[in-house]
């Protein structure tokens, strides 16, 4: 049974492709190397637009202060976040479109990442570099642990991570809804012990989702999923990496605010 906390890589992804979707490897099936290569392409595309948004956000700042750059970066952040969400939903429900929508998602998401990174960087010098190192360090560490068998995606492991991911999603959703009414959930978004502990917990769950993503992609390769699922698998992994990077930014900002 295939299960992932990532909504893009859910249990039924390979099961609901329709009859005849699973093909032989000779006909061009999903491969691990192909998925890795396409993940690299998506990361490169996101870096390109992130660099543009980063530079534009800084240039539009009046005096280099975070409060001056924030309004300039808002357009890129909102456009990237909304556009990325729409493209993500299209990709999830139209998997055959992944070869087109996944690269578009990476490009649009890059605008969001570059602009929000610029705001954090001007508040806390060096925080973006630290967050990037931590994100990719976590990725490679968990990949090695998974490939060596040190971490195994058992059914109980999957159930625990999925449940925790759902709980975090509900907390964030509640924060957004309550924010419209001027109500903030206390402590968890602050730089105190509770806030830092919450961020650490979220980072651990986001990191464990990488393990589920690796397992999911590996199962797809073993089942001989269609070639376009390489783009879909890369897209799902990209979603988790974006989440992990943002959570590292939040944790580091809390630590620097103490």
Task: Describe the fold and architecture.
The chain is built from 7 helices and no strands. Helices cover 73% and strands 0% of the residues. The chain is mainly alpha-helical and 258 residues long. The protein has one domain (24-257). α1 (32-59) runs antiparallel to α2 (66-93), α4 (127-148) crosses α7 (229-257) and α6 runs antiparallel to α7. Residues 22-26 have low confidence and may be disordered. It starts with 31 loop residues before the first helix and ends with a helix.
Radius of gyration: 19 Å
Classification by helices and strands: mainly alpha
SSE succession: HHHHHHH
- The number of helical runs is 7
Low-pLDDT regions = 22-26
Proportion in β-strands: under 5%
Distance between the termini: 44 Å
Features:
258 residues, mainly alpha, 7 helices
Helix/strand layout:
Blueprint: H1 32-59, H2 66-93, H3 98-123, H4 127-148, H5 155-179, H6 193-222, H7 229-257
Helix pairs in contact: 1-2, 1-3, 1-7, 2-3, 3-7, 4-6, 4-7, 5-6, 6-7
Concise overview:
The protein is mostly helical and 258 residues long. Helix content is 73%, strand content 0%.
